Amino acid sequence: MEITNHERIDTDDRNLCKLAISELGAIYSDLNLSQEELDLLEMPKRSFIVHFPVRMDSGKNKMFVGYRVQYNDARGPAKGGIRFHPELTLDHVKDLSFLMSLKCAVVNIPFGGSKGGVVVNPKELSRNELEQVTRGYIRAIANYIGPFIDIPAPDVYTDEKIMVWILDEYERMKGEHVFAVVTGKPVELGGSKARSYSTSLGGIYVLEEAMKRMDMDKFGVSIAVQGFGNVGENAARILHDRGYKVMAVSDSKGGIINKSGLDIKAVMEHKKGTGSVLDFEGSTNITNEELLICDCDILIPAALSDQLNKDNANDVKAKMVLELANAPTTKEADDIFFDKKIMLIPDALANAGGVVVSYFEWIQNLNNDYWEEDKVLERLKKIMITAFNEVHSLCDENSCRMRKSAYQLAIKRILHAERLRGNL
Ligand code: GLU
Fold first, then answer.
1. pLDDT (tens digit, 9 = 90+) per residue, 4-54?
2. Same fold across 45-180 and 197-350
3. CA 195, CA 185: separation in Å to the nearest integer?
4. Is the per-residue pLDDT at 95 higher than 70?
5. What is the pLDDT of residues 324-337, one digit of tens each?
6. Residues lining ligand 1, CB < 6 A?
7. Which CATH architecture has domain 45-180?
8. What are the structural domain ranges in the chain?
9. From CA 157, how far away is CA 154, in angstroms rounded?
10. Given this structure, which CATH class describes domain 197-350?
11. Do the Cβ atoms of 64 and 124 come closer than 8 Å?
């Protein structure tokens, strides 16, 4: 069956962990952490492995394995998505749950970090089987999640519809309504306005703040966006609406460029009709690789991981890179950008808008009071800009490495909470 990948940013983020973990060694030594602090950061608080049977359409039962890791919850209930993926491992879930702890701490929302999922290829399941897998997994972990314990959300190959099954199964077990147990729900069932495009808009708020630092003029810059899924398309659309010149976009089939700027609304229509952005009237077709090194001022990777690597980083002409995808930049490319003084806004900050609006959804559910879109956007903007300024102020005058500053800030916040609790 067709799966709509609501949280496409996470599609392939194995590198994210490698990058984060390899950065962490240096960060830990810069922060001069004690052995007890290191020990505390190195171990997840709780890890669950569950096995559960699902009656398949054939009438036979099949066993599935699921994981949930609550890495750290010193700053609040654990928060993180649920992914369905055939190659999911406990180790990968563990790394991702640590990264969620960092992401929530960077933007200073009162959550810890978690991640979970089921080892399954959802494309091989019927709609009914997908529902039964979701419900079976939730029954298996229901006693360990909750609005004040751990709050799941969408991630790779999970979407609004799956969040509703999670909600419904949990509520059946508890015998009461508990909207705040899961986020990423449809607006008609406790979801928040603006959640669907919050990752893109959150990134744009941060970008605009960064442009001020670099004295970049909104009407003088040209932008290239790699990826035309949920995050990339929304980013290109919002930038175009705000008057920016988006000169190149791409999807998995390839990209298009027009040096005077693309009419993004028309590109969206074209893609709807033809299935791709390619061959859009008035533009020239390019490859994804050409898009990354095109003559733009701002490059927004919003597709897969590892796109910017040692083979192409030296040819990148942009002065700024906004990581809306997870881990689009390898460690080698990261070093090259640093040497070339390209400002890189890291994923943990750039794409945190999604979990920030999840936080708003949780607040609205707990208060049973739903906000207008304006209020969601105003609060999202405030949180993203504050986080950017806090991360940026940690950068040295001449050597701004925002990924490192973001992780340092997050680790300090987590350890401070642990210390206040008496765990250190
Ligand atoms: N899966 C998303 C992320 O990795 C959203 C998590 C959430 O909203 O809790 O940021």
1. 334 444 445 555 556 566 667 777 878 888 989 988 998 999 999 999 999
2. yes
3. 9
4. yes
5. 987 889 889 999 99
6. 7, 10, 79-81, 153-155, 183, 354-355, 358
7. 3-Layer(aba) Sandwich (3.40)
8. 45-180, 197-350
9. 8
10. alpha beta
11. no
